[in-house]
Amino acid sequence: MKKTQNMIFISILVAQALVLYIVETMIPVPFITPGAKLGLANIITVVSLYSLSLADTFLVVILRIILSTLLVGSLSSFFFSLSGGILSLLVMFILKKFGKENVSIIGVSVMGSVFHNIGQILVASITVQNIRIIAYLPVLMIAGIGTGIFVGITSKFLLVHLKKLQFTKIN
């Protein structure tokens, strides 16, 4: 029974992340930086990281990336999302695991956002075969810090209410 509940919870998280990603593609982003997004689907990644195992969270991220690419993406968006998503998840997991006393969920989210941008810049520099694209990183970092704070606050709020509903045990 527990395995079935876990599968259902993972499916719900993937569906929510997918919906948030699709909605985000419809929002005109008022950022000066091209390519910067709010990262709404990352709310679900953070919720998953604090609710499930690393393997289950990895599954949520990978399924969201594959499905979003199939629905509204392209091959290049797949590689950008994959690199950013995996690097972001690994950094957030390490911070959550080893920095429990020193790093809040908001800090974990901000670092996830920063490393998501780093992963995407690395893929961009490989794609265009020009390392100078890294000069764009400081601009993305500023946007990433702001969106990371928003994602962290939202995730913290959701986790409190999921715990009240007994949908999840907070790690």
From TrEMBL:
Any Pfam family: Hpre_diP_synt_I
Transmembrane segments: 6-27, 39-66, 78-95, 102-127, 133-159
Keywords: Membrane, Transmembrane, Transmembrane helix
InterPro entries assigned to the protein according to its UniProt record, in alphabetical order: Hpre_diP_synt_I, Hpre_diP_synth_I
Protein name: Heptaprenyl diphosphate synthase
Species for this entry: Caloramator quimbayensis
